[in-house]
Amino acid sequence: MASIGREGKRGERKRIMFRDESGKQCTLRLGECSERAAQSALAGFERVLEADRLGTAIHPDGVRWLEGIDDRLYARVARLGLVEPRKSAEAVTLGTLVERFFAASSVKPSTRAAYKQATGSLRAHLGEQIPLASITTADADGWRKAIADSGLAPATVAKRVHIARAVFKRAVRWGLIPVSPFADLRAGSQSNPDRSHYVPIESVRAILAACPDDHWRAIVVLSRFAGLRCPSEIVRLRWTDVNWERGRLTVRSPKTAALEGHAVRVVPIAPELEPILLSLFSDAKPGEEYVAPRLRDAGANLRTHFGRIIAKAGEKPWPRLFHNMRASCATDWVERFPAHVVAGWLGHSPMIAAQHYLQTRDAHFDAATGKGAAATNPATHARLSDPTESEPETQNPRKSRDLVGVGVVCDAVESRQMGAEGFEPPKAMPADLQSAPFGHLGTRPIWRGV
Predict the structure, then answer these.
(1) DSSP letter string over 72-97?
(2) At what angle do helices 214-225 and 302-312 cross, to 10 degrees?
(3) Residues 126-172: pLDDT tens digits?
(4) Can you say how many angstroms the Cα of residue 174 is from the centroid of all Cα atoms in its chain?
(5) Under a CB-based contact definition with an 8 Å cutoff, are residues 134 and 126 in contact?
(6) Starting from the edge strand earliest in sequence, which strands make up the sheet with 242-243, in order?
(7) Contact status, residue 304 vs residue 317, Cβ threshold 8 Å
(8) pTM reported for the whole predicted model
C-alpha cells in the first residue's frame, strides 16, 4: 500500500511513498499541492500500482488520473517503470497543430484568411517549434496582451482569441494535450460600435443618382432595403428567386449555409427595390440567369468602386460600406416589425442583430425628448417617398412606390409607361412585358393590372 508523505514547515510539499516488488522504498514527488489533491493522486496512483503488480490493464480511474496530470509528473511515473513514456504530446509542435487544424477545416476563403491571421500571430509570439505540452496559461495571457498592445481593435482581438481557443480545443479532442491553456482566456466582444454608421435615406437618394447603371442601383437597394449581404448573397440571386406576384425574394446565404434551417431565407421586395428590379429584368440578355451578373467577376473591386460612387454623390464614405447598408436596413425594419420577423429576414437571431446590426440614431433621442427636426417615429422616414405627399398611405398603398429623386436615374423604368401616380403599371400591359420571358428560364414579372 502507498501512503502520503509531507515536507516543508507546513507540509505543503507532498509525495507518495510505496515499496516495489523487491521491497525497496520508492517515492513519487507531487510537489506543492493541497491535501485533497494529494489524496486524489494517491487513489489514482494506487490503480497504476495495482495493474503493474497483477499484470492487468489499468483501471479507468487510474487512466483518467494519468491523462489529467502534467507531463513532468507523468515522466516521473514513467521513470518508475509503471507506464510507457508519454510521446505524442511532446512530439507535436505548435506548427504541426496549426497545419493539422487547417487540413481538417472546411470553411469559406474569408474564414480561412481569418484563421491564418490568428494562427500567424500565435506562431510569431510562441514560436513555430514550441511543443504543445510546454505552452502554459501564462503563455496564452502573454499572447493576448501582445496582440491587444499591437493596436488591433478590440473586436479583432476577440476574434483571434476565439480562433485560438478553437485550435487548442481541437488539440484536446485529438488527444495531443490533456487540457487547453487557452480554455479560460478572455475574448471580449466582437462588435465594434465605433465603426457603426446609419445610412440615411437622403444619402441613398444621392448615391442612386450617382450610380452609373441599374446594376449598381440594384446593389445599393438590395443592401439598403432588402438587407442582403454584399457580395456573397447578391451575387447568388437569380431571376427565379424573384416572386413578383407576392413581392418576395428567396435569398441563399453561404455564410449560414452550414447551419440547419438557415441556408435559405425569404425577404420582402420593398417599394424602393421593385422598379429597379423591373428595369434590370427588362434589359437582361436572353437566357440571363443572375440578377447581378457583373458581380460574378472575381476581379471586380466593389469596395473601391462603391467608394468612388459615394464620393461622386457628395457623401463621405463610412466604415464597412456594405455592412452598414445592411445594418441600416435592419434598424429601419426593427422599428416597424416584430424582432423575430426582422431576424428571419436578416438570417440570424435577434441577439446577433442587437449586437452587430441595430443602431441608436439621433432621431431616437429626438422622438423621446420631443426636440429636433426628427421628433417623430423614425420609422415614418424609412421610405424614399415624397414627404409632402398629402394622401395617407393607408388609402393608396401604391403611393409609397414614388421614388422622389430616384426617377431621374431610373430612365429605363420611367420610359416604360410608369404613371405619374407611382410605379403602378397602367391598365394595358406594357409591350416590353408582353415580350417576356426574354429567355430568363421562363420567368417574367406577374401582370397585376386592372
Answers:
(1) HHHHHHHHTTSSPPP-HHHH-BHHHH
(2) 90
(3) 999 999 988 999 999 999 999 999 988 888 999 999 999 999 999 99
(4) 26
(5) no
(6) 242-243, 248-252, 264-268
(7) no
(8) 0.50
Q: Measuring CA to CA, which residue among 298, 335, 372, 30 is closest to residue 198?
A: 335
User: Exposed, middle or buried, 395 (CB in 10 Å: 0-12/13-18/19+)?
Assistant: exposed
Contact 68, 178 (CB under 8 A): yes
Encoded amino acid at 64, one letter: R
**pLDDT tens string 21-42:** 888 899 999 989 999 999 999 9
> How many C-beta atoms surround the C-beta of residue 98 within 10 A?
19
Peptide bond just before 437 cis, omega within 30 deg: yes
**Pair 147, 121: CB distance under 8 Å:** yes
* 3 state DSSP class of 30: strand
Q: Which domains does the chain have, with CATH numbers?
A: 3-86 (no CATH), 91-190 (1.10.150.130), 197-434 (1.10.443.10)
